[in-house]
Structure formats: structure tokens, C-alpha cells
Amino acid sequence: MPALSWRPSAAIPSALLLLPLLFSLAWARSNSRGLAGLPPNAASSPTTPIAIMGLMPLSDSVEKGKIGRGVLPAMQLAMEQILNESLLNPYSLDLRYYDTECDNAKGLKAFYDAIKYGPTHLMVFGGVCTTVTSIIAESLIGWNLVQLSFAATTPELADKKKYPYFFRTVPSDNAVNPAILKLLKHYKWKRVGTLTQDIRRFSE
Questions:
Q1: Alpha-carbon torsion 79, 128, 126, 180, what sign?
Q2: 171 prior amide bond cis, ω within 30
Q3: Using CA atoms, how far apart are residues 195 and 179, in angstroms rounded to an integer?
Q4: Cα(77)–Cα(88) distance, integer angstroms
Q5: From CA 49, how far away is CA 69, in angstroms rounded?
Q6: Quick one: which H or E segment has residue 24?
Q7: Is residue 146 a contact partner of residue 124, using CB atoms and an 8 Å limit?
Q8: Other C-beta atoms lying within 10 Å of the C-beta of residue 182
């Protein structure tokens, strides 16, 4: 992925500001598996790159690809901010992007290809499309990887027994219910209609 030209800014999205925190959590987990497979003496190297797997839709042909492409400038800004402030010395972050295309099969293949052919990743950043994110989040435990999502809001991912290594910076869809109830009570509405839809998890 070519370097972007945006300059560091104080207006960094919360998802990216949480990277150092998630890095610490992922690093703690990696200690139980031999520093996540890093080469010998890598931990003592002053220029040790720490690879992060960026999984999100990026293709122009996918509707939600604009979400992935839209967040790239913010990701670049955050990476520069972390680097300039030396928050992770003596390590540096190496964020690598993998296109899930918002497709279950392609997303899972991108995840496995990143593990097999890419560097040893310390954590996963991303997750936009619900079904793709759910599949990958359920697979994290097999590689002891932590995932941080900035867009997956499905309530299903709140199940910590099923997705113990998944975290997100956006609330679950269920979090809007208290606000809806307060709104109804405020206007004293007695009759309310709701529109919902059932989406089969693997229908995409």
C-alpha cells in the first residue's frame, strides 16, 4: 500500500487511538505463545516492526468498500501520530491492508492468506461487514489474535464466550434501545410501529 501524504493531526479517530492499548493487550497474549513467533532477538531490536492485519472492504465494486477506503486517511494519520510521538518505542507498527470485498469466502481467504503468506501479525484491525467480521472473529482464538473493529455493530459480536478476542469502538445495535424508549416517553407516544429485517448470516 503506497504511503499517503496526509500530515499528523490531533483529530485522530478513537479506534486508532486505541491501537496502543490493543497493542499492549495483544502483546500480553503473544507472550504466552513465544512473542507471536517473532524471530530470535527481535524483541531487543530497536527497529522491530510489529505487523497489524488490516481487514476491510476496499474494492470499488463493493458498496461498503467506500467505508474501508474512507478510513485509510485516518489510519495513516494515526500511524504517523504514533510514530512521531514515539508511543511504542522501540517498536514500529506495520499496518498491512487486506481486502475482504465484504464477501464471506473472500474475506476468510484474505485472513488465511495473510496468516500463511504475510508476516506474523500481532493483531487484527478492521471488520465492517457483519457476516465477514463474525466468521473471522470466531477464528481468532485459533491464532490467539486480538481484533479491534470500528464499524461492526451486530449484537451477536457482544457474546464474549464465542468471541473472546473481539473488541470494537462502536456500540452494539442494541445500545440504541434505551434512547428510543426515552424518546417515546418524552413525547408520550402510545402507539409506535417498527420496521425490522431478518438477515441470514451466510446469505451474502
A1: positive
A2: no
A3: 17
A4: 16
A5: 24
A6: helix 19-31
A7: yes
A8: 10
How far apart CA 28 and CA 100 sit, in angstroms, is: 27
C-alpha grid cell for residue 87?
508511543
21: amino acid identity, one letter: L
Q: Which residues share a beta bridge with 148?
A: 125, 167
Q: How many CB atoms lie within 10 A of CB 59?
A: 17
Q: What is the pLDDT along the chain (204 residues), one digit of tens a residue?
A: 433 333 333 434 445 555 555 555 555 555 544 433 344 444 444 568 888 999 999 888 888 888 888 888 888 888 888 888 777 788 888 889 999 999 999 999 999 999 999 898 989 998 888 889 999 999 898 898 999 998 888 888 999 999 999 999 888 888 888 988 999 999 999 898 887 766 554 444
Quote the cell numbers at residue 116: 500463511
The SS3 call for residue 135 is helix
Q: Exposed, middle or buried: residue 199 (CB in 10 Å: 0-12, 13-18, 19+)?
A: exposed
Closest CA to 149 of 81, 40, 56: 56
Helix axes 19-31, 65-84, angle to 10 degrees: 80
Residue in this structure with the C-alpha cell 478492521, named with its chain if needed: 126
